[in-house]
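Regression test case RT-17, inverse folding.

Input:
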């Protein structure tokens, strides 16, 4: 539940030594736990620093002290009202690394002090037709972190422990944050390209692309990076990560693509990517929102090319990604911002001023 004083950023502890705290301008006689959070009150408005009460973990939940929370394009889609019916008021953020402060009834997976990650998929019913056939990413009754559950643009978060992941020790919390969404969606998209992929085109060379490119290169694939036309900085960055070719999204790659991943939310990239593929290729759209796809001739889909989207993630995707990330030293390009600069971080992402991932750090 969000409440309290807007526009202030006073710091509180989760287990206060005293028992009188001021929230919302009223003296509380209860032992209320207060944290700072950047709160969305309605779509289209900037986030506001707000004092929010911290709830005790319920059944199956852990309370985490947030160490880092990545900023994702999906946060912009929620902010702009392109994703409908968010919880309101809402704390955004679904790329969260935190440490367990306390555990609710039945939550025994993680000891206090353990560092865990919280992804977008926050909860599923485990009984709908999709959950029963191992497609929990399509669950009919899911809860999503930072959308229908409060997320990590805050000092603390409640999470269902069965949807959390252990974070490999080789990453610090800021480095690990982008793995929790960009990495996961990138990994699921990559997994959908099928078994016969020797080369891979990646459209939109942001956070998801730079993570999955490293894993694909480690797997021996040739990566072709496509950026917005003229973005030589991103092209240089892609080559530095090991892409064999980098160019504009309108360019023809030096070889036909076995598969393409599209991470930029631009519908016209679908026919562009299809036209660059060879027979039997799959074009995977990794975004949750995309502009309309222009009509295109059937000939560029012909010969068993496939276009597909990827929705959310399964816990299996997470287990596989974090296994891979423990083996491959994935370098995540990050830019840390203090929690109270969340609006600035979102603005930098929106305007394309970031080559890696913005990560909020409560201080
Ligand atoms: Zn379900
Ligand atoms: Zn995300």
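Golden output:
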């Amino acid at each position: 539940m969000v409440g309290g004083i807007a526009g202030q950023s006073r710091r509180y502890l989760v287990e206060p030594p005293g028992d009188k705290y001021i929230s919302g301008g009223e003296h509380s006689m209860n032992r209320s736990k207060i944290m700072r959070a950047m709160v969305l009150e309605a779509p289209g408005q900037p986030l506001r620093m707000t004092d929010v009460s911290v709830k005790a973990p319920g059944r199956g939940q852990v309370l985490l002290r947030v160490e880092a929370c990545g900023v994702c394009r999906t946060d912009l889609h929620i902010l702009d009202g392109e994703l409908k019916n968010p919880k309101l008021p809402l704390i955004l953020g679904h790329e969260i690394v935190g440490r367990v402060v306390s555990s609710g009834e039945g939550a025994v997976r993680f000891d206090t002090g353990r560092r865990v990650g919280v992804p977008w998929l926050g909860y599923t019913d485990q009984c709908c037709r999709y959950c029963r056939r191992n497609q929990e990413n399509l669950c009919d009754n899911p809860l999503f972190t930072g959308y229908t559950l409060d997320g990590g643009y805050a000092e603390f978060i409640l999470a269902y422990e069965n949807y959390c992941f252990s974070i490999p020790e080789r990453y610090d919390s800021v480095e690990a944050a982008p793995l929790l969404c960009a990495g996961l969606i990138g990994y699921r998209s990559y997994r959908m390209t099928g078994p016969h992929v020797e080369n891979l085109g990646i459209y939109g060379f942001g956070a998801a692309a730079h993570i999955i490119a490293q894993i694909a290169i480690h797997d021996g694939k040739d990566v072709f990076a496509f950026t917005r036309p003229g973005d030589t900085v991103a092209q240089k960055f892609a080559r530095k990560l090991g892409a064999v070719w980098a160019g504009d999204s309108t360019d023809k790659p030096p070889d036909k693509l076995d598969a393409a991943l599209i991470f930029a939310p631009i519908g016209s990239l679908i026919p562009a990517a299809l036209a660059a593929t060879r027979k039997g290729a799959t074009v995977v759209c990794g975004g949750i929102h995309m502009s309309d796809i222009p009509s295109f001739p059937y000939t560029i889909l012909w010969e068993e090319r496939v276009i597909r989207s990827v929705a959310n993630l399964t816990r299996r995707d997470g287990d596989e990604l974090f296994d891979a990330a423990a083996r491959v030293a994935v370098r995540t390009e990050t830019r840390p911002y203090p929690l109270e600069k969340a609006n600035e971080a979102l603005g930098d992402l929106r305007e394309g001023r970031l080559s890696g991932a913005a990560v909020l750090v409560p201080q």
